Amino acid sequence: MLDIIPAILRVLRTVRPKYGCRRCTDGVIQAKVVPRLIESGMASTALVSHVVVSKFAWYLPLYRQVQILAGQGVHLDRATLAGWVKRTAWWLRSLYALQLRTIQAAPRLFCDETPMPVLDPGRHRPRICQFWAHAMDDRPWGGPSPPAVAYVFADGRGTAEIAGQLTGFSGILQVDGYAAYKALARDHGGAIQLAFCLAHARRKFVEVYKTTQSPFAREVIERLQAVYAIEAEIRGSSAEQRLATRGTRSAPLMEALRTRLTAMVGQLFSQSKLAEAINYALNHWEGLTLFLRDGRVEVDSNTVERSMRPIAMGRRNSLFSGSEGGAESWAILASLVNTAKLHELDPQAYLTDVLERIVSGRTKSHQLHELLAWNWKKARRHTPQAAA
User: Fold this and answer.
1) Which of 92, 111, 306, 319 has the smallest CB count inside 10 Å?
2) Does the CA dihedral 88-365-353-318 come out positive or negative?
């Protein structure tokens, strides 16, 4: 039988005895205070980590956590938990910045954005800001980049925001057809190559089929389904093998699809939804077919879209962020715990250990790379105590 022992709250008592020596010159001596995550606070690192993980990994708002704790006989104010979250983000800011730099240094980057309402005092409604997600994942072709995501809070979703985040980036940017990415690529003079998302193009035909039952929309969906079936077969193969298979099997399918789209668009009313879907695909064709010329490229940007789900779930439960500082803390903590989840780690165990190492000073600033989720997991795998 699978059993469970419910979580319990306990009080840890630390005793630091004082010693005095009549013959010594040092007088009374007492053991030094161990550095704590919350200075002069009564919360252990494990408790604070539990609050953080519950909110940013499992989408449980702070007010619900307050109710749960009250049910266990511990009465805390929501502002107290918010202070813990803020302090935790302060300790982890450097590790988050390192993770973001590591992702942006990859030659192939996924990017997406989603709204984030922020409470704005004096207004009758929250101000709509943005979370940008930067992600990498080379597992589909056995490349060197491990799965990771970093969220960046920004006031808006314009070209200026993404350009400021990707200063110095060069390589392949896998995105949807949003205009800000196109402007970014133009401004970088060819240093950034856009790979567009085939799932976005397919989605437009799915919407047309759902509303009009168009036979042509169904045909396009089926043609794209054949391409995705090939991708499922070659997932996990090397970039060279993927490129070869795509060249012999996927390329003819995509070329035939392009011929059909070009022939059909001239027969339609230009303002129809089907014509819009066709024009979107044809206008983005170069980026939609980049996967046929580079075995590292995915057919869509679902890698980063999946990483947006935790933000959407948290936003749905919390409704908004209380301030810009709270949104920045959200970005920092969600980046770390959700990357831990991508590596199938227990985010509670990971975050507790990382915080204890940073707060105690056992891990110095030049050793922060050891605490990135993929390096932490590798070290634990090779540590006898962890294995035991």
Assistant:
1) 319
2) positive
By DSSP bridging, strand 108-118 and strand 18-20 are unpaired
316: buried, middle or exposed (CB in 10 Å: 19+, 13-18, 0-12)? Answer: exposed
Tokens of 82: 């918010």
Three-state secondary structure readout of 26-56 = CCEEECCCCCCCCCCCCCCHHHHHHHHHHHH
Type of residue numbered 149: V
Tens-place pLDDT, residues 118-176: 998 878 789 999 999 999 999 999 999 999 999 999 999 999 999 999 998 999 999 99
Taking only the tens place, the pLDDT of each residue in 223-250 is 999 999 999 999 999 999 999 999 999 9
Whether 311 and 334 have beta carbons less than 8 Å apart is answered as yes
Q: How many CB atoms lie within 10 A of CB 293?
A: 13
- What the block records as the tokens of 56 is 């940013």
Calculate the CA dihedral of residues 109, 112, 117, 122 and round it to 10 degrees: 70
* Assigned token pair, 316: 């749905």
Q: Give pTM, 2 decimals.
A: 0.91
User: How far apart, in Å, are the Cα atoms of 305 and each of 42, 225, 302?
Assistant: 39, 19, 5
